[in-house]
Amino acid sequence: MPRTADAPLATPGSAGTSAGAEAVLAGLDEEQREAASAVTGPVCILAGAGTGKTRTITHRIAYGVHTGAFVPEQVLAVTFTARAAGELRTRLASLGVGGVQARTFHAAAMRQLRYFAPRVLGGPLPPLIENKLRVVASAATRNRLTTDRTSLRDLASEIEWAKTTLATPEDYPARAAAAGREPPFDAAAVARVYASYESAKQRDGALDFEDLLLVTAFALEEHPDVARQVRAQYRHFVVDEYQDVNPLQQRLLDAWLGGRADVCVVGDPNQTIYSFTGADPDYLLGFADRYPDAAVVKLERDYRSTPQVVGLANKLIGQAPERKSIFRLKLLGQRAEGPEPRFFEHADEPAEAAAVAQACRALVESGTPASEIAVLFRINAQSQVYESALADAGVPYVLKGGERFFERPEVREAVVLLRGAAAGGHEPGALVPTVRDVLASTGWVEHRPPAGGAARDRWQSLAALVDLAVDLVAEDPTTDLPRFVAHLAERADAQHAPTVQGVTLASMHAAKGLEWDAVFVVGLVDGVLPISQSLSRPEAVEEERRLLYVAVTRAREQLTLSWSLARNPGAKRARPRSRFLDGLVPGSTPSAPPPPRRTKRAKVVLEGEAGEIFERLRAWRSSTAQAASVPAYVVFTDATLQAIAEAKPTSIRELSGLPGIGARKLEMYGEDVLATVGG
């Protein structure tokens, strides 16, 4: 917090000894030592997975304090989580350093704004809106939008994205289109809700969490006396996970610095996986351009994973488009040799989950603690089949970063409705249609997965209930609705057992920053990883590759990657394994790079039935584009039409796995495309 008017500033050289400084550097490797001793001027530490990033930056701060280059109270270390900030403080205390401010962006901004609010805002810090949903709901109602909790969550996410990228309501439609956003409503409608939300906030005299950063930055930019006091207090800055900084956070950092260059940033360009929240890796990638005299240090010695896991991670990220050489990190495994990563193909998802559950059980029985095992997937809705398989195998588990499947609001609501339908009478032998009808009463539409993260997760959860009904009928055609409801209750009871020491189930995003002895990365099929809505944008596909890299580098010793050819037992085994596994699976070759952009459209030549389908699709596209007054390629490119004609999809699910078909186009054109393919 900024010092009070009568609080004297400490002076450099007031703490530490040269002997203490050398002791701080002892035990660091050559690159870590170089980074830790670079205590002046701009510094960029490119720290690969498992290379001792936190150890390096805490020793750098301690070294600066012990040499007198830093006064502890003048150092502000900014992290992305309170847990990371706490770990920094704990490690600094063990190195004999106290007084350093280690906080998240929001915590640091709140502390400063609370102190300066009377001067900047004319009174105390306004109340904070800790949950946007109530205000967003009112704004949506004023704009005559019909919403549910899921669409409200997606609207709130869009407003947060807009504010973190410094987009105003007027800017939002164009900015959202340029970023490839898939909002839950028309972009113009989202912009109107955003504007109403801001007006309501101002009317109530409240701030949200994005405002904390924005108003603090404004205070520093527009109030010279505030800027002088804060910049006198904080002279040295350290920013962790710099690849995940968004434009709003960067604006606040620039305001703190005030043109000074005493900043150390730490990040890994290979772990940039949050651009969907507004994070911009260009701040890290452009750091050396912004500060030409910056010291750039690479940490590439991986102390976490075996050379076998490290080798696979290097091969995976090595297939990404080339970056400038300064940002290429190639990990060097420092641990003893371990087992080779394993790859498994399965007939369907239940078979894949059962195999993973049995492998987890074998590991536990052979002495591996369950807490040292993780199953990582791309989307939260994939957890259900693994929750069930682990419960059936008697293996305890912990679900990280999300609610248990049967505790999700949409699942609980569906189970209540199914229970009511079972009690009120049902048609024998029609379990699956009945389940579909009950879910349809909640607004669920089977072949139309919606845009938006929360809405898509809700859709996937309800689709999983239908899939479970299909599975039960396949095993026993006499299964009826009461038995299905009883089966759901049994599964829910089994999954509510104590699971504190269990196998971790987590999405790949939730797994970042964590590590386990044994990791299973599952569900690796195109359309899931890379996720279907990313396929139309090369930069989004590359972020999906980095997400798999993050998952792979969570493993210390044992790594298993798997995929299944069909969603359900008995279904057509047509799902392609993830393109990112090409060149990694023994005997496979790397995927060919995308062809160069042509100045003239190449003529597509298909023969037989595929050729007939292609021509029908072109005719449909022409009439659709004409009706919408847009160029034909805006509907679908020739390459996408060719992929459709060759695949001959018969369902929305099959169509969604094809390149160039995102969620929005699937919703707009999916049924028409299937009808055209079918003649």
From TrEMBL:
<dbReference type="InterPro" id="IPR027417">
    <property type="entry name" value="P-loop_NTPase"/>
</dbReference>
<dbReference type="GO" id="GO:0004386">
    <property type="term" value="F:helicase activity"/>
</dbReference>
<dbReference type="InterPro" id="IPR002121">
    <property type="entry name" value="HRDC_dom"/>
</dbReference>
<dbReference type="InterPro" id="IPR014016">
    <property type="entry name" value="UvrD-like_ATP-bd"/>
</dbReference>
<dbReference type="GO" id="GO:0016787">
    <property type="term" value="F:hydrolase activity"/>
</dbReference>
<feature type="domain" description="UvrD-like helicase ATP-binding">
    <location>
        <begin position="26"/>
        <end position="306"/>
    </location>
</feature>
<keyword id="KW-0547">Nucleotide-binding</keyword>
<keyword id="KW-0413">Isomerase</keyword>
<dbReference type="InterPro" id="IPR044876">
    <property type="entry name" value="HRDC_dom_sf"/>
</dbReference>
<keyword id="KW-0347">Helicase</keyword>
<comment type="similarity">
    <text>Belongs to the helicase family. UvrD subfamily.</text>
</comment>
<dbReference type="InterPro" id="IPR013986">
    <property type="entry name" value="DExx_box_DNA_helicase_dom_sf"/>
</dbReference>
<feature type="domain" description="HRDC">
    <location>
        <begin position="607"/>
        <end position="679"/>
    </location>
</feature>
<dbReference type="InterPro" id="IPR014017">
    <property type="entry name" value="DNA_helicase_UvrD-like_C"/>
</dbReference>
<dbReference type="InterPro" id="IPR010997">
    <property type="entry name" value="HRDC-like_sf"/>
</dbReference>
<feature type="domain" description="UvrD-like helicase C-terminal">
    <location>
        <begin position="307"/>
        <end position="557"/>
    </location>
</feature>
<keyword id="KW-0378">Hydrolase</keyword>
<dbReference type="Pfam" id="PF13361">
    <property type="entry name" value="UvrD_C"/>
</dbReference>
<keyword id="KW-0067">ATP-binding</keyword>
<protein>
    <recommendedName>
        <fullName>DNA 3'-5' helicase</fullName>
        <ecNumber>5.6.2.4</ecNumber>
    </recommendedName>
</protein>
<dbReference type="Pfam" id="PF00580">
    <property type="entry name" value="UvrD-helicase"/>
</dbReference>
<feature type="binding site">
    <location>
        <begin position="47"/>
        <end position="54"/>
    </location>
    <ligand>
        <name>ATP</name>
    </ligand>
</feature>
<dbReference type="Pfam" id="PF00570">
    <property type="entry name" value="HRDC"/>
</dbReference>
<dbReference type="InterPro" id="IPR000212">
    <property type="entry name" value="DNA_helicase_UvrD/REP"/>
</dbReference>
